[in-house]
Each structure stands twice: as C-alpha cells, then as structure tokens.
Design a protein that fits this description.
- With 277 residues, the protein is α+β, with helices and mostly antiparallel strands.
- The chain has a single domain, classed as paralog of FGE (formylglycine-generating enzyme).
- The strands form 5 sheets. A 4-stranded mixed β-sheet has the order 11-10-9-12. A 3-stranded antiparallel β-sheet has the order 1-4-13, with helices on one face.
- The termini are far apart.
- This is Serine/threonine protein phosphatase.
- Pfam families: FGE-sulfatase.
- GO terms for molecular function: formylglycine-generating oxidase activity.
Amino acid sequence: MLERLAAAAKDELRMIGLAGGAFLMGSTDRFAYPEDGEGPVRRERVGPFAIAPTTVTVAEFAAFVLDTGYRTDAEKLGDSLVFRGLLPERLRDGAPVVAQTPWWRQVEGACWHRPEGPGSSAESRSGHPVTHVSQRDATAYAEWVGARLPSEAEWEFASRGGLEQQPFPWGAVREPDGVPRMNTFSGDFPDGPTGPVGTVPAASFEPNAYGLHNTTGNVWEWTSGVFGRTDGRPVLRGGSYMCHASYCRRYRTSARTAVTADTTLGHTGFRLALDAG
C-alpha cells in the first residue's frame, strides 16, 4: 500500500513566495472567540517567506514513511480520535467516547493510513490532506523535506490573501452567490448532515489571492506558534470539515485553537513553510 500511495506524490516541493509585510492580525468581530485569544486586533509584521499552496497529502506523507520508516504518534500509541459520523455502527457504538465532545471516538488502530481504524484505508484519498498526525509528526516531515511549519502570523498573513480584516480568505460573505467556498459541516451537527462528511482533496475549491487552497475548512493546520503566554500548547489554525455555526465558527481567518503537541485527530493536518531565499 505504501508504494502505491507514494507513487501518487509530487516529486517537486511546491511553494508560493510571499514578500511579507505588515497586516492586521486577529479579530474582535461578533463571531470571534475572546477566550481563544483572537483579539485584540494588532498590527503584525512578517518577513519574506514561502508557503505551500495546499496541505501535505496522504501520498506525500506516504513517500516520507516509505523513505524513513517513520512511525507516527498515533501508531505508537495505538489509537487516535475519529469523528463518529465517519464510523461504521460497530465502531461508533463500541469505541470510547471523549468527555465533553461526544462526537469524538477514541478508535483503536486509527492512524494516517487507516483514518477510521480497522478496515479503513487512505489509499483512495491519496490527494486528501494527511490526518491523524501530531505536531511532532508534522515537524518530522517538514525536516525531511527541508522545510518547517509556518509561524502563526505567517499562516494568518497567507490565509488572508492580502485582505484586511475579512473573516474569510475571499472576503466578507461565507457563501457568495450561495456557493460553498470551503469544506465545513452542513446540516444539523453532529448527526444530521445534508452533504458529504470528511476531508476533500487538498487542492479543492478556488485558491485565495495568494494561491492558497483550503486555509479555512477541511482540516485544522499545525503551526509553530503557542497559544498564550502561560499556555505553551501549539496553535492550530483554519477550522475543519467538522466546523458548524451551531457550535464552532472557527472556519475564519482569525480563528485559533490549541491541543498538545502529541495529539492526533482525524480533522488535523499541516502545510509547509520556508524561509525566503
């Protein structure tokens, strides 16, 4: 399986060079989460850097594993967190429920190449974002290709695509002309979807003005930033296919959350960055 997946990987590292500059970071609009540290709005400056147009795909991660023999944190631990809406009934009802977030199941055997656990396979999703990777896994991949994770400021600068204080990478309206621009949960969360649930290919939807795809929705993305002065957990940005207005409007350019560096989830991936030059 690894060989077949890796064969679909691109040989060339694709990056978009950005000149950097000053921008207004954060948000205090009515949909912002003050407890997440989205505000206050402040002027930040980033230097020149390059960033990937898409998140790292299953195929690309397979090439890394094939070359290095790397084992992810989920594989070493033996389980990972999976959205219950993706699971067959036997696993949905049998796997441990995560306290306070009962839509998550702790599934034995779930990992990057078995995203829903035993009996599942990522082989048909070679172009989708790799998931069930911790920040440590993402950093190991980045080092293998000679890159790094973006800083939180770099990530937001790139996601905004040159727009100031707009909630989405394309502007102020979530669905211009009623057409979805990102992959989020539609219907009644968590058990009443009106559309497909799960990841879509990493290059889905139109890119923003800088050429980046899916910086909101699809999968949360690891950064190198930390959540707060007294909270050293790494920051995730961008929201995911599980975001829904009824409980989580974190599908916006300023939204942020944090988990521990060894956490693995079925809605979390990463994209790469490089220093300029």
